[in-house]
User: Fold these one by one.
Assistant:
Number 1:
Amino acid sequence: MQGVDIQDKAGSSRGCLTDLTAGRNRIKSVSHFLEFPIFPMKKTLLFATALAALSTSHAVTVVSINFVGNAGVAGELAAGDLAGLPNAQSPVPGVNTFVPNWNNVSGNSASGSAGGIVTSTATSTGASVAWTTDLGGWSLPDTLSGANNTANRTMMKGYLDAAAAASVTVSGLTAPDFTTPYTVIVYFDGDNGGSWRVGNYSISGNTLGGEDSEGVNFNAGGLAGGNENPDGLFQIPVAGGPGNAVWPVAGGNNGEGNYVVFTGVTGSSFTINAGGGASADILRAPINGFQIIAVPEPSAALFAALAFSGMMMRRRR
């Protein structure tokens, strides 16, 4: 899209977002430079209105799914419970992943589906979730003994388990929120006792894996007993480095973690395929929950409105 450049009769310079030199206020929005005098106020209000409309179009959509497994009410999140990655670890800069209004999905059977999916702002999406797995639903024995007192200890409690294969399909992701590529976070941690397990997760042919180390259970305490994540931290698997180290591990962590991130996912539906990695001593690939993060681009209509407001300011001079 070609930028809009409106100048006063005396001309102007470029290079900053705000320049009060010679009594001018300059604001850059996306690739557009619009310049206008600080007075009269009508022009300022016109431009401010256009900017407000543009910012509204950038509303982020976060959809969060919690597999309750066989945990029952102990694995169900209330509408106001905040769960998900701490915002400081969000894979999308500036977007909160620690959010309310998670959708509780049973997942305590080999197959099933759920509708009525809402966003983190409790807005209905019309989307649905369906799953199949060879192991059904399970739960961690203890997610309360560590130092993490957030609702993540509830979110990570239950999970949909898989040995050789599981699939989770989300359908009905509608415009305008999901017309551009979006991000999917998959959380995993199973009750693996003394076994170490590697789960492989894929979306549209892109496969990511992570090791659920022996004795590591989310927020279960027991550091002295060998639990390397006693206080319920989130760690993304990174190849290389030492294994069996206490979390968080800077740099390579031998692929040990409890979430993976898919970027650039597209379409009104997608499927998470999961299965245990052959390199582990037992095949397992749990899915405790997942989040979908969509940041829609501003519409062409709003860009047109912004350009129109600039033309109106030029005509009123």
Note: The chain has a mean pLDDT of 82.
Number 2:
Amino acid sequence: MQIDAAWRNLGLAHASFRATEQKEYRELVDGLREIERLFFDHPELAAYYDECQRPPAPGNSAQPALSDPRIRHVVAIQAQFMEEVYFVLQLARFPNALDNRGWMNLFRAWGASATFNTIIDQLRHTFTVEFLEFYDSYLGRYPGTIEEHPVPHPWDPLLARADPRVAATGAREGEDTTLHGAFLDSGRQEAGGAGAGRRTSTPSPGSGSRGVKDETGNAGSPVDQTQSAERKAPTKSAPPNA
């Protein structure tokens, strides 16, 4: 029985990228809308909203943290939502997937906020160790986007696994400056089953394949399905697609 369980676990670990089911994804989008509505309904939070919506860049996390006590509750909601997305989208395995690009960049923007980091450090006892390890390694205080600093693989050379934050802040004595990486990130090239070479748009929260099935049973976005239908239609008199 133990051998059977081990084989099942290996099968799950080696499974390719799975686009999120529509219901799961809609729940995540609804959660993000609730956070956006919270900021909209409370204009006194505008300074913090601006801080945590800046694109991740060097120096962002070095800004002084805001001291407004009302922000603590908002950060707690953001961090709990971030942890939920981490587990639903399996970001530990698919951080570089094209479908997850927008989420990773949104969370790096939050993680570049000095205020967000100050409060999440105070709330660490309320989160899972697994999520905190991922946040500390690939989201918090990052100097750039997922395109600029993708999550490496364990088999990448040491230079590719160097922590990009060290160049900006310097390493403390005895600090490990090498990232462990995501072990099986097959989503890097096959997000949504569409194929990396075919995507011309930029997926973000609210877009992407999200488990929609076309007539062949493959996952793909409505745009992908339209392109599939166009390829099947007669094109002898039509000019080639640009």
Note: Confidence is low (pLDDT under 50) at residues 187-204, 206-240.
